[in-house]
Amino acid sequence: MASEYEIVIGLEIHAQLLTRTKMFCGCSTEYAFNEPNTNVCPVCMGMPGALPITNEEAIRFGVKAALAINCHVNLYSRFDRKNYFYPDLPKGYQITQYKYPLAEHGYLTIETSTGEKKIRIRRLHLEEDAGKLMHQADKIDTAEYSLVDLNRAGVPLAEIVTEPDMSSPQEAKIFMEKLRNILRYTEVCNGNLEEGSLRCDANISLRDPETGNVTPRVEVKNINSFKFVERALEYEASRLKGYFEGDKDVIRETRGWDSKLQKTISQRSKEEENDYRYFPEPDIPPVVLTSEYIENARKELPELPDAKKKRFVQTYNIPEYDASILVSTKELAAFFEECCANYDKPKEVSNWIMTEVLKELKDREIEINDAKVTPKHLIGLLTEIDRGMISKSAAKSVLAKAFETGMMPGEIIEKEGLKQISNTDEIQKIVEKVIEENPKVVAQYKGGKTKAITFFIGQVMKAMRGKANPKIVNQLVKEILDKPK
Ligand SMILES: [Zn+2]
Predict the structure, then answer these.
(1) CA of 61 to the centre of ligand 1 (A)
(2) What are the Cα distances from residue 125, in Å, to 11, 65, 160, 162, 186?
(3) Distance from Cα 484 to the centre of ligand 1, integer Å
(4) Span 18-33, pLDDT tens digits
(5) What would be the CATH architecture of the domain defined by 424-482?
(6) pLDDT, tens digit (0-9, with 9 covering 90-100), for 119-137
């Protein structure tokens, strides 16, 4: 028996497309805050005789997403019916692209701990979303029941299926993050896992490299955060090991991740494809594209994260690590560039964004675009530091205050009395006083213990409540201590 089993993971990702209307009817896709069953019509409610019409915007968004993940877009694709019954699916079938998908053979390159790795993408196809079930527990007669909301029924989805190329839960997480980032850059999906506009199902199995034995493949559903992608797969990888020791519970099935229990739970045995009785959708003509259409969509693509990262390294001469963090969202990248357009120390800007700005955003649980701090604020702050008006440590609290109030750094420094003291005479008086009060440490210093200098600097800063210009304090302490008596 092998000590290390190989982990094999493939992902199926559903991305809700940000079209204004649904996949096959004119109903609005803005369902989240609306009353249940208000964004519906005979088509998305599955009334007999209602005819679907393909939404061109959904096709265009699908093509853009496909190009952004390096897929080949097919000039001919077609919709099929996937037949199954569920209360949130009023037609009794889902319209999806089964046999002829919109796009195939893509890939994304991810950065893993051992270097770059290419994850192949098998296909991207379009389909419609189902409605939502709201499970209720009736307190009066203790009967449980479910309500059906069809506002989401018919919202366009792009389903992206990878090859089983990921060999650790961590790689799966990195892939998901990268894919989300690209979809958001492309503006075809808002990428919100918590709200379900980006959903991830994962297939996982283990292989014993010595015997070649493979466990049954398990599909894990309901993964609604990046943290859970990794956790659910780690849990499942360790559960699957039992198969090699004769655990009869490891079977081919679908399991759901329960974030409260922190474990996966068996849902149902996995359907075979022929259970769905796929056949061509007779009411919708095939999607026939021209090369020109595809090229136009390609022209609409923005600069994608990898290209932007490369450019940042070259243009701003910042480390690759910095660049990869700065391009993690389109908005953060834009914030950085706007700062650099008006302030010529890109590395300094990058340092502040990567540490203090991101920390403030995280503490406040907001995105950069929702923050009261704009590039103007950050440049203002850096300029105050450059002019010696404020120490770096005081600058951090000024930035926090700017995040809180939206006030400009100059105003905050004035109002809070944080102005740094650079007046040499004023500092010299304190330095002389501190040296006079500590003859023992002076003796140690003169005796060769040069590190004692930090004691004096600390005492002076303390006496001046951190407002003294540290450069001048440093210089004066050294000067006065070294002065021959
Ligand atoms: Zn409708």
Answers:
(1) 19
(2) 14, 10, 7, 12, 17
(3) 90
(4) 999 999 999 999 876 7
(5) Orthogonal Bundle (1.10)
(6) 999 999 999 999 988 877 6
